[in-house]
Design brief:
With 403 residues, the protein is of the alpha/beta class. The chain has two domains: 10-46 and 290-402, Aspartate Aminotransferase, domain 1 (Alpha-Beta Complex), CATH 3.90.1150.10; 65-286, 3-Layer(aba) Sandwich (Aspartate Aminotransferase, domain 2), CATH 3.40.640. It has 14 helices and 15 strands. Strands 2-10-9-8-7-3-4 form a seven-stranded mixed sheet, with helices on both faces. Strands 11-12-15-14 form a four-stranded antiparallel sheet. A two-stranded parallel sheet has the order 1-13. Helix 3 packs across helix 10, helix 7 (154-164) runs parallel beside helix 8 and helix 11 packs parallel to helix 13 (379-393). The radius of gyration is 22 Å and the shape is globular. The model has no long low-confidence stretch (mean pLDDT 95). It binds pyridoxal-5'-phosphate. Pyridoxal-5'-phosphate binds at residues 38, 102-104, 128, 172, 177, 205, 207, 236, 238, 243, 248. This is PLP-dependent aminotransferase family protein.
């Protein structure tokens, strides 16, 4: 008798593991200088402040903190998220906010609640890999949108909506991962105009906005009230407080969608950790985040400037790279003939890591692109990392001349 074959979900089987995860294993070797992961600098975490917040919660509300809580989130954390959104010029009430375990869970829940297999989802090209994974496990078809140095091109969005009849568009308008690009206000307005004329959901991912190096606060596209029945804005404390705490949120003004996302969350996770939410909410209520973030922004900016300055001396002639106004990433393109996926193994052997660009693309991957995180290494280590990279690129002599 032929044994019965057990099978797994074929959409899940078709999704590749994020190649960055594998690089993390190499990056765990302390002798390697890694520009790969998008990890906040651990030495800048407010460990004492957060420990005090947890201690306060256990001392004043211990049994509640240790109990099951509501699926939508603890009222204090929903209030805190709504306040943060209002500070970013987004009208929001606690009732419109659902707390999530990081924005990655938000992406997964939104994908489950919105998508049927075969639905088309438009994405920037390149874009954040784990969002692609969250969407792909639902069996959607991903279509690439054209962008330029100011981000997504509104005409390209309009044409893609016309051509593909998509269910949703996924955007990271501020300090995009991986390109570091921020869409200017005029472009956001044009994109809102296109979406207001459509029935397409906007999934707007905004984890980096507060890591800005200027006073320019860029309002999320979802703030446009015309999009209230079709916008989902995801936020997170991961990049500004701690990714280990795992607290994020979804702002969803549409009641039916919010309710369905809630059902999806109940089915997958019941709730977000009660104690983590209460501690995070207490921290936010007792700290001025502008003051908390000022030294972090200053240090990240110094690290970014060092990385850009050093890279400009060692990237081969004909390379291009951006100088981001915030966030965590510098994105570069090497001249014709380079293959960053092949080169990364040589780089690892030389003791330095970056992330090759191709896996961030859903179409026409550019083998010459690569992403550097500038936040994880101090200025000296950044210099040493770029020196190691120069050896791999064969440009050490340029460095020697400029020294
Ligand atoms: C664009 C983007 N969205 C979402 C996330 C997930 O963040 P978290 O789940 O820690 O909030 C990341 C993490 O790197 C990201 O870069």
């Amino acid at each position: 008798m032929t044994p019965l074959r057990h099978t797994l979900n074929h959409h899940v089987m078709a999704v590749g593991e994020s190649p960055i995860r594998r690089l993390f294993e190499i990056a765990a070797d302390p002798s390697i200088i890694s520009f790969a992961g998008g990890h906040p600098a651990p030495e800048l975490f407010d460990v004492d402040g957060l420990a005090a917040a947890y201690a306060h919660v256990f001392a004043t509300d211990g049994p509640r903190a240790m109990q099951y809580g509501s699926t939508d989130g603890e009222p204090e954390m929903r209030e805190a998220a709504a306040r943060r959104l209002q500070e970013a010029n987004v009208p929001a009430s606690a009732a419109e906010v659902m707390v999530t375990s990081g924005s990655q869970q938000g992406l997964g829940l939104v994908a489950q609640a919105l998508f049927n297999p075969g639905d088309v989802v438009l994405v920037e090209n390149p874009t954040y890999m784990s969002a692609l994974q969250a969407f792909a496990v639902q069996g959607v078809e991903l279509k690439a949108l054209d962008g330029d140095e100011a981000g997504l091109v509104p005409e390209a969005l309009a044409a893609a909506i016309e051509m593909w009849n998509p269910k949703a568009v996924y955007l990271i308008p501020t300090f995009q991962n991986p390109t570091g690009i921020s869409m200017p206000a005029s472009r956001r307005q044009q994109i809102a105009d296109v979406l207001a004329d459509s029935d397409v959901w906007l999934i707007e991912d905004d984890p980096y906005a507060e890591l800005r190096f200027t006073d320019d606060v860029l309002t999320p596209i979802s703030a446009d009230p015309r999009l209230d029945d079709r916008s989902l804005l995801l936020g997170s404390l991961s990049k500004v407080l701690s990714p280990g705490v795992r607290v994020g949120w979804i702002r969803c003004p549409d009641e039916e969608a919010r309710e369905r996302i809630g059902v999806t969350k109940q089915a997958t996770a019941l709730q977000t950790s009660t104690v983590d939410q209460l501690a995070a909410a207490h921290y936010l209520a007792t700290h001025n985040m502008e003051e908390v973030l000022a030294p972090v922004r200053a240090e990240y900016q110094a690290r970014m400037l060092t990385l850009v300055e050093e890279l400009s001396q060692v990237l081969p002639a004909g390379s291009v790279m951006n100088q981001p106004a915030g966030g965590m990433f510098v994105w570069a393109r090497l001249p014709v003939g380079f293959d960053t996926q092949a080169l990364v193994f040589e780089a690892a052997q030389a003791g330095v890591l970056y992330v090759p660009g191709p896996p961030f693309y859903v179409a026409d991957p550019d083998p010459r692109t690569l992403r550097f995180s500038f936040v994880s290494n101090g200025v000296e280590r950044t210099r040493e990392g770029v020196r190691r990279l120069a050896a791999v690129l064969g440009t050490e002599s340029t460095l020697a001349q400029s020294a």
